[in-house]
Amino acid sequence: MTSSEITQDPAPARLTIGIVSAGRVGTAIGAALERVGHIVVACSAVSDASIRRAETRLPETEILPAAEVASRCELLLLAVPDDELAGLVGGLAATGSVKPGTLVVHTSGANGIGVLAPLTALGALPMAIHPAMTFTGHDEDTARLSSACFGITAADEIGYAIAQSLVLEIGGEPVRVREEARPLYHAALAHGSNHLVTLVVDAVAALRVALAGEELLGQQLIDDQPNGVAERVLGPLLSAALDNALRRGPAALTGPVARGDAAAVATHLRVLQDVDPRIAAGYRALSLRSAQRAGSKPELIEILEGRS
């Protein structure tokens, strides 16, 4: 379904878009919107990296100060870090550069539309549209948006309809998030995605130590770069575990913790401690949570809590 099917217009309205700023998220969404016919007329970019990103992803877009960007568009996309959003909104409100009726969208996961109140008071239509996706700054960012969910929050049904239409146009799936639930929504996403990266990087580091000095097909392993042997060993296992967890929930848990094998877990803690005490501490914390999920034996819980 597209926005034209929602509004029953023969074609969705083409919007002039301004972006503040030309970071990974803003330029990826801007490029996605241009692909479906909207026009990014201006964006702000300060650092050399953001200027290069704007020139690459949005080559026909003029680079201007934030206030000028805001004054030239029908849809203003605020794609700045969470802790910069309130200051940016206040600054734009003070300049009076946002015209009444402007659609103002921010991409912060942690914030709803309350943070946009200074612009709403000037007649702007506030929306929070957060892509539940990680951004690397590479070409795949824009392509991944077409398979992502977007957490949307708006002031009324008209706002929700507009936000939904924009997401559907670029191939995403809109999901409503209540204003008061935005912090919890963001915490859940950060816990799942960011901590997954830390978990995988720690597992790779430990596996590299385990495989050091071995040979693969008669060749000595040199495995201190990404996409090496350790990553190839872990890749299929991690992909299957993630798929099982998403499809089967806690029933997907396997391994020594799920079996209640206290001796194996104690050994894991010992050998990981030799590699890096911080990795061992992470293993202990996650094993304890896994044991709680699995209803493991009391003696295993005691080991993980450091009581035995």
Could you please describe the fold and organization of this structure?
The chain has 308 residues and is of the alpha/beta class. It has 2 domains: 3-177, NAD(P)-binding Rossmann-like Domain (Rossmann fold, 3-Layer(aba) Sandwich), CATH 3.40.50; 185-304, Orthogonal Bundle (N-(1-d-carboxylethyl)-l-norvaline Dehydrogenase, domain 2), CATH 1.10.1040. The chain has helices at 3-7, 24-35, 48-57, 66-71, 82-95, 117-120, 140-145, 157-169, 182-211, 229-248, 256-259, 262-275, 277-294, 298-304, and strands at residues 16-20, 39-44, 62-63, 75-78, 103-106, 125-131, 149-154, 173-176, 215-216, 219-220. The chain has an 8-stranded mixed β-sheet with strand order 3-2-1-4-5-6-7-8. A two-stranded antiparallel sheet has the order 9-10. Strand 4, helix 5 and strand 5 form a beta-alpha-beta unit.
Proportion of residues in helical segments: 40-55%
Average pLDDT score: 92
Order of helices and strands: HEHEHEHEHEHEHEHEHEEHHHHH
Under CATH at level 1, the class of the largest domain stands as Alpha Beta
CATH A-level architecture of the largest domain: 3-Layer(aba) Sandwich
Shape: elongated
CATH fold-level label of the largest domain: Rossmann fold
Number of β-strand runs: 10
Topology of helices and strands:
Elements: H1 3-7, E1 16-20, H2 24-35, E2 39-44, H3 48-57, E3 62-63, H4 66-71, E4 75-78, H5 82-95, E5 103-106, H6 117-120, E6 125-131, H7 140-145, E7 149-154, H8 157-169, E8 173-176, H9 182-211, E9 215-216, E10 219-220, H10 229-248, H11 256-259, H12 262-275, H13 277-294, H14 298-304
Helix pairs in contact: 2-3, 9-10, 12-13
